[in-house]
## 1
Amino acid sequence: MRSLTELGKYSNLLYQALRSSTEFSTYRKNLFQELVKVGYDSVPIIILTGIFTGSVMTLQSAYQLESAFIPLSTIGAIVSESILIELAAVISSLVLAGKVGARVATELGTMRVTEQIDALESMGFNSVSFLVVPRVLAGIFMFPVLYIVASVCGLGGGLAAGFFSGTVPPADFLQGARMYFYPWNVVFGFVKMFVFGFIITSVSCYKGYYASGGAEGVGKSTTNATVLSCIFVLLADFILAALLL
Amino acid sequence: MIEIKNLKKSFGDLLVWEDVSFQIDDGETVAIIGRSGCGKSVLLKHINALLNPDEGEVIIDGNNIHAMDYVDQRRLRQKFGVLFQGSALFDSINTFENVAFPLRYFTKQSEEEIRKNVMQSLEYVNLEEAADKETSELSGGMRKRVGLARAIVLRPHYIMYDEPTSGLDPQTADEINELINGMANTLDITSIVVTHDMHSVLEVADKVAFLNNQTLSWFGTLEEMKRSDQQDLQDFITASEYQIKG
């Protein structure tokens, strides 16, 4: 019953956000700020995540496929496909659920419990348009951009790890990556990040917007936002794979 | 004029109050008093439709605010200034920008006009020198005054004060009371003050609404309150350590 109530409130918030999305003048300034916070500010952690994901993937693939009968280019193919189809999107999103989701939930939660959202409404603002719409739009726009960063860094990290560890020469790695490169994999990655961006920002906005109970309440809403975002990202990942692959 | 008619509110099974009716005439200051948790702030949030009642209506200048669509509600809310209990200043921007905030979004004023209006509002609350301060640098009393400056910057018809003197030392509380009187007299604003501070009530109120036992237990002028023999009201006043009758 409680889950249904929550779902109803979440759907209602999304409906209000959709209706408010036409009030561009209300959220224009916030949108640019959020694009920077969600996108630009997340670049360092995404670079780090991408490099290490690609590196580990290469070293583990080399370890598992250590055979004279398997060409080294296979490692490049496995690493590049895994990164483009799955890892760049999912690992990055799980990291972003912690970074972006927690920030969004904490910001809105604090604004709720300190009556700043009530103050906005009292002045005649549409608080959903002002606070929720720009954050969700920033997630939808910037997550696919971060996917490019994660993919490039993942492939670069994989290539570098193969070279420095002496397991896969760069030429073999690139040959494998090119041989099994399908543009659809990249499109699929973009679709995933578009969906994950929406899930993480909307769930976090919901949890923050309806936070209650002071500092403890904000803490709970932030934790719930992060955990729920991760669960829904994994669930959406499965559904998208089943539908689109 | 604000007319509150037969208002009832519950949260789940918990009845906050019912059968609440009274009227606030233009230019007067009405204090809503009652024990902590009796639903004073909840009533305040019904007046500008931040909360919706289970039954009853709030008529503002002839319009039932709860029957309006959201766009019209928001337009009507611009007639109100609200000073929240914790001031509700936006902590991501400084004092000047907090006060300028409604002007930037709801008017087409130039930067020069905005500066003039913000400084005028800050002057009303004697805080011109704090314009460039971050909100985290402000004391409790200063935060209240900045909140008040923000509340009046659009020159509202009504101001609602939610516990304006709570958590303040007596001297600062007196300053806030003087400001409330100043706003009412200088700017000809109708004021609604939620408080349990009887000293504040005596300083600022023309009329008093007493919430008790989940209803509006008593409503009348300040003079009538002093003469009232209603036991609950007198108990509340006596407990507030202000011997009005004496």
Note: Residues 59 and 165 of chain A are 8 Å apart (CA to CA).
## 2
Amino acid sequence: MYGKKVKLRAFFILLIFLSAILTIFLVIKALEENVVYFKSPSEIKNLTELGDKKIRVGGMVKKSSIKTNDSVINFIITDFKNELLVSFEGSVPNLFEEGKGVVAEGFLKDRSYLKAVKILAKHDENYMPPEVNEALKDNKK
Amino acid sequence: MLNYFNLNNTLFIINRLRKFVFALFIIVLLIGLSEALILSPEDYKQSDSVRIMYVHVPSAWISLGIFSLISILSFGILIFKNKNFSLIAKSLAPSGLLFNIIALVTGSIWGRPTWGTWWAWDARITSMLLLAIFYLIYILSWRVIDDNDKAIKTSSIIAIIGLINVPIIKFSVDWWSTLHQPASINLLKESTIHSSMLVPLAIMTAAFALFSLLIFLMKYNTELIKIKNKGLDRL
């Protein structure tokens, strides 16, 4: 078997490694608020104070909620529990679509209205050719 | 401890192996590229920008794999004082960093048309940037520290600390809400990527792995020649 010195070294290094893991775990835990890239409409609803800082809200674009009025786009972000109305002036990414993921960055006017300055489309984990997508849609019908 | 009694013999074998790996890499890369760029279908939503994924995902996998390997070797280096492990770990790092940078850059190029932004400080992307910084510190620690024994120790500790970041990268998309999408390929669940896209992805991963092996053999070869020139027949 290995000598006493090797065992001692193994123990020493393992101890450093484990304490480093614990430190980082605690740091991340404490910073959790900042690690998340966006909040959900439900989390917005439960905010104690609104604040005037820029905020990101993510969720699904509610079906048939997109309304274009001149250059202003209005739509609703939903997490299927709560909803948030978003208005935005500018161009949206190509993947911005009803029923798909979206992240809106902007300023909260109240707990159900966000004035966005930037819209990001969130892509999901599904990858498939168009034919397969068509076939899936047909199956659903 | 590894015996370099026949260092010349080892160098000879590495040279032969290098040529073989190089030929295999070219073949697999050509098959992979024609699959990824021509034969595979476009995506139903992203259309042709899905092809960036065939470079992005394998690069990310390889850079994570190589870093994990370096970290595991580093445990061996510190605990068993194995000098050969330190040569292997040192020679692995450059291709790991290269693929890490490729993953970041291709991700950025993909993010612009898909998300609508070049960069987002979300957990996945930030932790991946942190991995690149760890790679950089690791490689620099070998260069900056003149005393070889000290360099071995310092670099190994850096690699071990950096290992903690690896599961954070992997699970960042599950633990926190991120702009980056969750994994499409799961061992436990059914994959959410169509098989016609899985094939080019697998071939490109093999090609990149071969390329890393090639760069590793070249670097390892250089390290052995350095030892030979010092007139040592063993480490």
Note: The first strand of chain A starts at residue 55 and ends at 61.
